[in-house]
Amino acid sequence: MASQKNEMKKFGLVGKNINYSFSRGYFANKFKKNGLLDCSYQNFDLKEIVGIKEVYKTQGLKGLNVTIPFKKEVLPFLDELSPQSEKIGAVNTISFNKNGGTTGHNTDAHGFLKSLTEVTEKLPMSALILGTGGASAAIAFTLETLKIDFNFVSRNPKQGQLSYDDIDTEILKVNQLIINTSPVGTFPNIDKYPLIPYDKLNKSHILFDIIYNPLETLFLRKGKEMGCTISNGLKMLEYQAEKSWEIWNE
User: Which residues contact 233 (CB under 8 A, 6 or more apart)?
Assistant: First the structure.
């Protein structure tokens, strides 16, 4: 039995309070469906990112995903970054080379790009990104790639960013795409939502929430009531997970 354990290829998710995690169930189903009996996926729930040093010592570890709130905090604990994750400044996937060295990657950008272009054929000229955490950096990178102008919206805006109080009819008229990258509305706090003037939205707007639990947040529901096109983060997660798997098996 010991030798069998040593042969297991282990993957996992690093984050904080991640019992709700999509990744563990997704990869467990993937391994079962594809007969990958030598693969397992587990959660590494950390209070502080420094705990990742112990995670790295896990026998048979082949790859990691990284989620809130460590996508930026993990950077000092990596040996190198892929060119894309270096530009983004956030990592959600870690691969290991043959010598045990770590490389940080970002597959969120890939997941968002693919899922956004499935939601609409006609991309808007400008967007609002709600939130300024690690996920927002990948969204911003993708919008730049698509040549879509954007503004960050924050509860504590820095120079060049908007506050939620700034969002008015004129700003919403210009910004047809609104992406929630904040955790507001995530289970179990499903009665929360970003404070924007939903009554000023219309059918020309697209609301994209990177949250997937619940599948329809109050942010999305309020947009749907105004005729907006809406999308949750489930497809984005599936696409970024598949990209992670691709990286781990290169």
Answer: 115, 208, 209, 210, 211, 212
**pLDDT score of 2:** 40
Ranges of the chain with pLDDT below 50: 1-6
- b/e burial code for range 88-125 (CB count within 10 A of at least 16 → b): bbbbbbbbbeeeeebbbbbbbbbbbbbbbeeeeeebbe
Token readout for 16 is: 């904080």
Two structure tokens written together for 69 = 């709130």
| 3-class DSSP state of 88 | helix
The residues annotated as belonging to the active site are: 71
3-class secondary-structure state, position 87? helix
Dist CA 216 CA 153 (whole Å): 21
Name the residue with tokens 């870690």.
Answer: 94
Peptide bond connecting 69 to the previous residue in cis, omega within 30 degrees of 0: yes
Is residue 157 reached through a cis peptide bond, with omega within 30 degrees of 0 on the bond before it? Answer: no
Q: What is the pLDDT of residue 5?
A: 47
